[in-house]
TrEMBL record:
Record-annotated N-acetyltransferase domain positions: 10-167
Pfam families the record matches: Acetyltransf_3
Matches recorded under PANTHER family: ACETYLTRANSFERASE, RIBOSOMAL-PROTEIN-SERINE ACETYLTRANSFERASE
Upper lineage: Bacteria, Bacillati, Actinomycetota, Actinomycetes, Micromonosporales
CC terms in the record's Gene Ontology section: cytoplasm
Organism of this sequence: Catellatospora citrea
InterPro entries: Acyl_CoA_acyltransferase (IPR016181), GNAT_dom (IPR000182), Ribosomal_N-acetyltransferase (IPR051908)
Protein name: N-acetyltransferase
Lineage top rank: taxon: Bacteria
GO terms assigned for molecular function: protein N-terminal-serine acetyltransferase activity; protein-N-terminal-alanine acetyltransferase activity
Amino acid sequence: MFALPLGDGAELRPLEPWQAEEFLAHMDRARADVDPWIPWASRSTDLDSARATLQRYADLQAADTGRIVGIWLDGTLVGGAMLFDVDVKAGNGEIGVWLEPAAQGRGLITRACRALLDWAFRERGLSRVQWVTRPDNARSLAVAARLGMTREGVLRESYPYRGKRYDSEFWSVLAHEWPPA
């Protein structure tokens, strides 16, 4: 098994289809908190749908257009980070994250994002990684700022969620802005 220590009993590991049962148990703990921000949270409600979510990311990884990693805290899956919409030729991608309530407030998301951004810029050679969130997601906005991202703007009413349209706020960081390891 491959793991990257994040400190304080946490580690970043690949999250793969064979881990669907563990992922589903995690989603059951996280869904209410994660659903407004991550579209697939409400679709990963049984073993088959959880496996399908992870398989979509395995397929993205195989096509070199994305990746998903989990955050384990003291041996329990508590969240994760994903890199998606990767276009290696253009040098662009998008990062997203989630965390269940019991693991919040420990800096795990910021540390996981740093590791994933290091990989995206140093190993995959991306030039730009964006972060998209709703303006009312204060935790997400704070992480983007802690990562040194630049706020680029807002797309008004671009995100439909449960019959209502929300704005999407865009942030990004460029490879030449990313701090050295």
